[in-house]
Inverse folding.
């Protein structure tokens, strides 16, 4: 499907010298396609407004001047400064040839933009929970930073729930979605008071059994029926169609997620399920993801809203009080521009489904990729520069273990590459068509093929941009390649509110460790190193 008109990509570099867009003829990423009752889903007290210094690097972090880049010190310039500072501070170099960077000010800004976009279209007092899709960047410090800026957590496994709890995200700000929840997972969620969306009739049967075991609550349903602490709902699939990336299309006729609204007898079953269970108070759908146009996302939400209205009419009261509209806002991987924006999407929904925002329904969102993608960068040293068939090849330490989707499906997941010299400065010079290769032992391990960039030479650095979601957090252990260290960064500010620039035109950059680089010893331990004779003894 084509992209919506308001999601057209723009070619803007914003201070990142040597940023290479996908070559002519390469398939461009589709920009139209890319994470309750009051008190049950509201941000914790004090978390609504970003707190000064929240998520900042530790006080003992090193501070070093680095290049400012473009005027205005925007996203590209912050990235340039961080790459140079990482080299100067020894975080990146011959002994540590790959790192991942997270732009902390950028993450804070995205959280604020999301909240402001929906605040602008919802009726005053409407409870809104923005729950970050943990799968996008499952890192405890990231979840804690987002929580401190008013964002909860959407989890899809016991591991993701454990990460959210380690980040101190409270149960009231947590949502459990998964197509394969075990009885133990459901029992834990209900015990904690975490919101749960049942994926199918068999799962709802399991929840029935768990709810029957609950004591009557102070806010029980009609005739004293049990009322769980957890807000509960059903996930539906509006079956409105797919997008340009089949594997990420969640609302096709045969999608594995939710109850298909157009399947024979399904709608009648859903309506009756709510009529029989007064404690079912939510309805959930997730239509979007990378490759899905905004118009199709809005259509899926409209179908879900219409179903909620039908159910409430059928039971004769406002039983469904919250609509979980999922996430799925796509990301523009073709330039520095953030498009589409949360404001664009919220306005589109307000036009397409005005009743969604009139205050009768609480809202839950589950955005992931759109919150983090633009704020992550993987920087890898060029270990060797060679030529094959007359084309230059830069062999780096970032490949399939980092950018699995890009390597195996480059047409759907092209990445921009920025070139830096051995000192971490944006590299100048004429563009040369070249390949940027990874370290894995197969021919297709390429971050970019036939990309026009300043010529990368041995000791230079190649940076894969827009990798803050689904890239460095989801390691693929091909060739037993180690997970890189991840560092958050921010520019130190002068006491007078300035940018922290020094007399040489640089800026002070501070780093905080998000995740230590994986050691060879840890790789051995994960691979059964403690049991070398386990098989020979059989």
């Amino acid at each position: 499907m084509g992209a919506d008109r308001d999601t057209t990509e723009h070619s803007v570099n914003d201070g990142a010298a040597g940023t290479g867009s996908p070559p002519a003829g390469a398939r461009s990423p589709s920009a139209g396609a890319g994470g309750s009752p009051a008190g049950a889903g509201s941000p914790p007290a004090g978390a609504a407004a970003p707190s000064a210094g929240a998520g900042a690097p530790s006080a003992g972090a090193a501070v070093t001047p680095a290049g400012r880049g473009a005027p205005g010190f925007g996203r590209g310039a912050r990235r340039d400064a961080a790459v140079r500072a990482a080299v100067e501070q020894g975080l990146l170099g011959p002994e540590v040839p790959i790192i991942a960077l997270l732009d902390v000010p950028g993450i804070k800004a995205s959280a604020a933009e999301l909240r402001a976009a929906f605040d602008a279209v919802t009726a005053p007092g409407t409870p809104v929970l923005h729950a970050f899709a943990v799968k996008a960047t499952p890192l405890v410090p990231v979840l804690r930073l987002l929580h401190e800026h008013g964002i909860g957590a959407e989890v899809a496994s016991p591991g993701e729930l454990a990460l959210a709890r380690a980040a101190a995200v409270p149960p009231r700000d947590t949502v459990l979605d998964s197509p394969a929840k075990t009885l133990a997972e459901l029992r834990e969620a209900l015990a904690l008071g975490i919101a749960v969306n049942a994926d199918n009739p068999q799962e709802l049967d399991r929840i029935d059994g768990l709810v029957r075991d609950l004591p009557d609550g102070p806010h029980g349903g009609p005739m004293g029926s049990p009322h769980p602490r957890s807000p509960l709902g059903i996930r539906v699939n509006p079956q409105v169609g797919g997008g340009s990336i089949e594997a990420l299309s969640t609302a096709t006729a045969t999608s594995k997620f939710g109850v298909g609204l157009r399947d024979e007898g399904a709608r009648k079953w859903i309506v009756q399920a709510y009529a029989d269970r007064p404690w079912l108070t939510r309805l959930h759908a997730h239509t979007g993801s990378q490759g899905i146009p905004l118009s199709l996302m809005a259509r899926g939400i409209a179908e879900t809203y219409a179903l909620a209205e039908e159910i409430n009419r059928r039971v004769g009261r406002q039983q469904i009080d919250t609509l979980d509209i999922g996430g799925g806002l796509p990301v523009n991987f073709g330039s520095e521009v953030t498009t589409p924006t949360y404001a664009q999407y919220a306005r589109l929904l307000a036009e397409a489904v005005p009743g969604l925002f009139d205050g009768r329904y609480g809202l839950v969102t589950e955005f992931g990729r759109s919150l983090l993608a633009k704020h992550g960068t993987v920087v890898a040293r060029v270990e060797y520069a060679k030529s094959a068939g007359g084309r230059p090849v830069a062999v780096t330490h970032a490949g399939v273990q980092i950018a699995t989707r890009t390597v195996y499906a480059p047409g759907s997941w092209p990445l921009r590459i920025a070139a830096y010299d051995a000192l971490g400065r944006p590299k100048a010079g004429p563009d040369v068509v070249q390949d940027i290769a990874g370290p894995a032992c197969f021919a297709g391990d390429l971050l970019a093929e036939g990309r026009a960039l300043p010529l990368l030479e041995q000791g230079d650095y190649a940076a894969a941009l827009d990798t803050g979601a689904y890239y460095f957090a989801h390691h693929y252990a091909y060739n037993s390649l180690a997970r890189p260290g991840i560092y958050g960064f921010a520019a130190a500010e002068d006491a007078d509110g300035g940018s922290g620039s020094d007399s040489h035109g640089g800026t002070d950059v501070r780093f905080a460790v998000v995740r230590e680089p994986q050691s060879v010893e840890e790789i051995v331990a994960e691979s059964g190193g403690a049991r070398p004779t386990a098989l020979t003894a059989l």
